[in-house]
Structures are given as structure tokens and as C-alpha cells.
Amino acid sequence: MSSQQLPLLEVPVTALAQAQRYPRLRYMGSKYRLLPTLAKVFEEVGGSTALDPFAGSGVVSYLLKAQGFEVTSRDYLNFPVTLTKAACVNQRQRLSKDEVRSIAEGGNLDGRDFISRTYRGRFFTPEDQLFLDSAWSRIDRLQGEKRDLAIAALVLAAARKQPRGVFTVTGLRYDDGRDSLHKPLNEHFVGCVQAWNDAVFEGQRCQSFRGEAVEATPSTDLVYLDPPYAPPNDDNDYLKRYWFLEGLSDYWEHGTASVMHDTLTRKLPKRPTAFGSKRTIEAALAALFERFSGSTIVLSYGSNAVPSVDTLMAMLRDVKGSAPEIIDLQHRYHFGTHRNAARREATEYVLIAP
């Protein structure tokens, strides 16, 4: 590898301290552990505007906001957009104790029961499912950032109650004895609201949109790319793992009719994306690099994915005219329970292409 190897770097304490307030969601490929490295990279790259078109858990968008960037976040799923609206777009709104108590304890305002009917006997207790229906009957009466905060807290509560935070199986197959797996969901919700309230701060103006990364407007100083990694022998289908959070984020507004009732988990159908297959991801990445060639590109990628890092460096060199700088560090992924899961121990690369 001919490009310069950069050492691990120290971090601006104030921005990192703020970023570490972001509520932690167990999410495939999440960059919580890479925040110190990314914070220093973003500081050295500089600029005033940033685009995060694969927002995911939202933590990198939040870090960029903490560092003073005007951030535009984007994701092809709805619930990550809601998270970034709650903590990045939102500058000062918080839910009051009375509003939280109303949602957690106030009862069902309109008799809705979609979750209780559709997912009876799946994932959560009848009491928890009644709470989710009831909570949404009240959240539906909120507007703006307070609505985003409440939905973000509901999503986080559901993720923390579900073993491993994924919805690929029912029951407690992965029950490791943690109290959080047995705490009532309304109690989870109250704690999650507090976490999101604590994360709110005023910074530069931010935006968040739902849509494919390639649809984002290429007009920012910095573009951070964290595309789904395409593993050679598995898939990177986020909807397969988090479809319940996706449905919960808008009360199945866009998916009620498409619930797959013939599946054990009553999941939502897969949404095809060019980043979801090793056969199409290289062309998809090439299109992204070309689209954002006028910005400094910072790319996160893993050694357990295709294309290889050497291929990525060559692609960036073709677009930018010079080889990118690269940082590499060991990183363990927390998903994968089958016999091949050892490949989740990987080298994480951060490529910087000015």
C-alpha cells in the first residue's frame, strides 16, 4: 500500500465529550468506538458544512455537529432520520416531565391496537405491546422536534428491550440475564427520553432527509461515507435486522399493508439497494465518489468486505488525482452468531481524500 499510513490521533476533548452524550444504540457497523479517530480527522480536514448520507445510528452526524459543522444527514431508512432529527436538527426542544408522564402512563387515546394485534406473542409482552400502541396514540398529537424526540425514545427503548437489539428471531434466545431485557417498556421509555433530552444542544443549523445516498446534493465541504459493508459470505440487509424499529418509527404508516404475515416475525419486505450486494456495490461506490468529487471525502470501510481497500484507494485516486491517506485500526463487530462470526474481527480503515 503506497499511501501514507497515519497514526492514531488525539482528539478534541470538548467535541468528543459532547459526542459521547449521544444515546447508544446497538447498530450494525456503528462508529461509536471510532469517534476519537474521526473527530481528529474531521478537525484536520476542516470546513463548515458536512454531509453524512449513510447516517445509521446518527452518532457521526452528531459528532460533526459538536465540532461546529452545519450537517446534512441522510439514510434510506426512516428511523435513523428520526434519530438525527431528534439530536442534530433539534437545537433546544426537550420533552417535559409532564409530557413524558402522559406518554408513559396516560393510556390509549384512540383505541389503536395495530402492534398488539399484529405482533401478539412476538418480541414483547402483551403489556409492552399495549404500551407501544398507547404511546403512539399520544405521540401522534405532538409536533416538530418534540415528536421526533418521543419517537427516538420509543425506538431506543424497543431496541434496548429486544435481545441484541435485532428483530430476526422471536423469544429470548439471546437472553444473557441483563435486567434491561425484562424491564417494562414504559420504564425504558422514560430513561430513553432522559438520554435524548440530555443530548440536545444548540449548534449550527442541521438537516435530515430520507433517501438514497446518491440522491444527496453534492455541495458540502466534507462528505463522510459509511456505506453498508458487503461481506463475501453474508448480507448487509439492515431492514432484515431492524424492520421493527423502522415500522415503529412511523407506526407502520408506510408499511402496514406490506407486513409479511406469512413470516414468523411479521417483518417488512426487503428494500433493494445497490449497496446490498457484492455484485453491485463497487459500481455504486464509484458513482458516489464521482458525485462527491468536489468535496473532501472521508470513507470508513472494513477489511471483511468487498471491494478490497486497495480497490477503493484506486477508485478514489482515479477521481481525485492522488492517493488518499489512510488510517487503519482493529475493530470488533458485535453481530454474527454463526460459526463464521470470527471474521467480524477486522481492520477498520478510514480513507481521507481531499
Automatic annotation (TrEMBL):
Keywords for this protein: Methyltransferase, S-adenosyl-L-methionine, Transferase
GO biological process: DNA restriction-modification system; methylation
Cited Pfam families: MethyltransfD12
Enzyme class, first EC level, given as a word: transferase
Organism superkingdom: Bacteria
Record-listed E.C. numbers: 2.1.1.72
Single GO MF annotation: site-specific DNA-methyltransferase (adenine-specific) activity
Keyword Transferase: yes
Catalytic activity: a 2'-deoxyadenosine in DNA + S-adenosyl-L-methionine = an N(6)-methyl-2'-deoxyadenosine in DNA + S-adenosyl-L-homocysteine + H(+)
InterPro entries: DNA_methylase_N6_adenine_CS, MeTrfase_D12, SAM-dependent_MTases_sf
Protein name, entry field: site-specific DNA-methyltransferase (adenine-specific)
Organism whose genome encodes this protein: Tessaracoccus bendigoensis DSM 12906
